[in-house]
C-alpha cells in the first residue's frame, strides 16, 4: 500500500510547488477505499484528496501517506485534523516533514487523538521524491539537476557549433520526461540566442505541465521575438539580469516576462548563488539545468549541482569541439565536485547515467 502511495506521489512531481508531492492510500478491511495525491498547485493535499474520494466511511481505516500529515492552518485546515475528524484508526507515514510548522506535530496530533501512528515505511523513496522540497526547507534553495547530452568524450557541439542532434530520439524524449517532473528549467542567454528554444515538455499529454522557464541573462539581451517571449503569458518566464538597460527590461516585461535583478559576479555575470536563494524564496523546489557549458560550470563552481543526468551518445568529437562543462579552475583533484553513480540504463542508442552529489 505504501508503494501505491509513493507511485501517486511521483505523479504529482513538478506540479505541486511550493508544496511537496504526496500520495495517500486508505484501506479498510483489506480493501482500498480511497486514493489521493497532492493536486496541481499544491491544493488539495493528498490526505484531503483521498478523504474526498472515499467510497465509504473512514472510521477505523488505515491511512498510508508518504509524508507526515500537516498540522498547521494555511489556506486549508490541517490534514492531521481532517484524519482525526474522519475517525481513522491507524496512520502509516513514510517520513517526518522537516517544515518547522509541521515537524512531528502532525504525528503528535494523531497520537493524541488515539490514532495509532507508524513512521518509517518507505522512508528512503519518500525522501528522494521530495528531495527538492526537503532541501528548500533546510537550506533555502531548490535542488538543481544538471542535464547533459554529450558525446563519449563529454562534448556537446562540434567546433562549428552544430549540436542537433548528438543524442537520439529516445534520449531526447526522456529529457522531456525530466522536464515534466521539475518545477522549472534553467538556461543561459547563450542557449536562448543560439537555439531559440521553447523549453516546454512535448511528450503526448504533458504539454500543460511544462515547467516555468528561467533565463540567466546579465544584460537582458534576449530577443522580444524569441519563442520564450512569445509564450511567456502561457508558460511563465523568469529572466535574471545584473543591471541591464531599463529600455530592454521594459520591453521584456511588456511580453509578460518576470524580470528580476540579481547581483553580478565575475565578468558581470549573474551570481548563481543569489539566484538560488531567490528561487527558494519564490517556492521552487526543483530546477532542471539545461544550459550550455558556462551555465553548468557556474553552478558546479558554486557547489549547487545536486543531481546529474548524463545522456551519452556513441560518438567522439575531439578537443576542438565544445565541452559540456566550461572552465572550473580546479588545481587539485581534492577540490573537484564529486558525485556517486545511482543508476545506468540504455535509452535507445544512448546511455543515461544518473549521479547524486556526494555528501
Task: Explain what the structure shows.
By secondary structure, the protein is of the alpha/beta class. The strands form four sheets. The chain has a nine-stranded mixed beta sheet with strand order 11-10-9-8-14-6-15-18-17. Helix 10 links the parallel strand 10 and strand 11. The protein is globular and about 70 Å long. The mean pLDDT is 93.
In short:
The chain is built from twelve helices and 18 strands.
How are the secondary structure elements laid out?
Elements: H1 2-11, E1 23-28, E2 31-37, H2 46-53, E3 62-65, H3 79-86, E4 90-93, H4 105-112, E5 116-119, H5 123-129, H6 131-139, E6 143-150, E7 155-157, H7 169-180, E8 184-188, H8 189-195, E9 212-216, H9 227-230, E10 237-241, H10 246-253, E11 258-261, E12 264-265, E13 269-270, H11 272-282, E14 286-289, H12 293-301, E15 305-312, E16 322-323, E17 339-347, E18 350-357
Helix pairs in contact: 3-4
Throw out a few tags for this protein.
alpha/beta; 9-stranded mixed beta sheet; 28% helix
Helicity level, as a percent range?
A: 25-40%
Order of helix and strand elements from N to C terminus: HEEHEHEHEHHEEHEHEHEHEEEHEHEEEE
Shape: globular
Strand arrangement across the biggest beta sheet: 11-10-9-8-14-6-15-18-17
Amino acid at each position: 500500500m505504501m508503494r501505491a502511495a509513493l507511485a501517486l506521489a511521483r505523479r504529482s512531481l513538478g506540479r505541486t510547488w511550493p508544496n511537496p508531492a504526496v500520495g495517500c492510500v486508505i484501506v479498510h478491511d483489506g480493501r482500498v477505499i480511497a486514493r489521493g495525491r497532492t493536486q496541481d498547485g499544491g491544493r488539495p493535499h493528498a490526505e484531503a484528496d483521498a478523504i474526498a474520494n472515499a467510497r465509504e466511511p473512514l472510521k477505523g481505516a488505515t491511512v498510508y501517506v508518504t509524508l507526515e500529515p500537516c498540522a498547521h492552518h494555511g489556506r486549508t485546515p490541517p490534514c492531521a485534523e481532517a484524519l482525526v475528524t474522519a475517525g481513522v484508526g491507524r496512520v502509516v507515514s513514510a517520513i517526518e516533514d522537516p517544515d518547522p510548522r509541521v515537524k512531528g506535530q502532525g504525528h503528535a496530533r494523531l497520537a493524541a487523538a488515539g490514532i495509532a501512528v507508524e513512521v518509517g515505511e518507505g522512508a528512503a523513496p519518500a525522501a528522494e521524491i521530495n528531495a527538492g522540497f526537503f532541501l528548500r526547507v533546510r537550506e533555502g534553495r531548490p535542488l538543481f539537476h544538471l542535464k547533459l547530452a554529450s558525446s563519449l568524450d563529454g562534448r556537446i557541439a562540434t567546433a562549428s557549433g552544430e549540436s542537433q542532434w548528438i543524442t537520439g530520439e529516445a534520449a531526447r524524449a526522456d529529457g522531456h520526461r525530466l522536464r515534466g517532473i521539475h518545477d522549472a528549467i534553467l538556461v543561459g542567454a547563450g542557449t536562448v540566442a543560439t537555439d531559440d528554444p521553447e523549453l516546454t515538455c512535448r511528450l503526448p499529454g504533458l504539454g500543460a505541465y511544462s515547467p516555468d522557464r528561467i533565463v540567466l541573462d546579465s544584460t537582458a539581451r534576449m530577443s522580444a521575438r524569441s519563442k520564450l517571449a512569445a509564450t511567456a503569458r502561457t508558460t511563465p518566464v523568469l529572466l535574471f539580469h545584473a543591471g541591464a538597460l531599463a529600455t530592454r527590461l521594459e520591453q521584456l516585461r511588456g511580453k509578460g516576462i518576470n524580470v528580476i535583478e540579481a547581483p553580478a559576479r565575475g565578468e558581470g555575470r549573474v551570481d548563481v548563488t543569489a539566484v538560488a536563494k531567490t528561487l527558494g524564496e519564490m517556492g521552487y523546489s526543483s530546477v532542471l539545468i539545461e544550459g550550455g557549458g558556462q551555465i553548468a560550470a557556474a553552478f558546479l563552481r558554486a557547489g549547487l549541482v545536486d543531481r546529474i543526468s548524463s545522456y551519452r551518445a556513441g560518438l567522439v568529437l575531439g578537443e576542438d569541439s565544445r565541452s559540456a562543462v566550461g572552465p572550473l579552475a580546479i588545481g587539485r583533484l581534492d577540490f573537484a565536485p564529486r558525485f556517486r553513480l545511482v543508476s545506468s540504463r540504455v535509452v535507445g542508442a544512448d546511455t543515461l547515467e544518473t549521479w547524486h552529489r556526494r555528501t
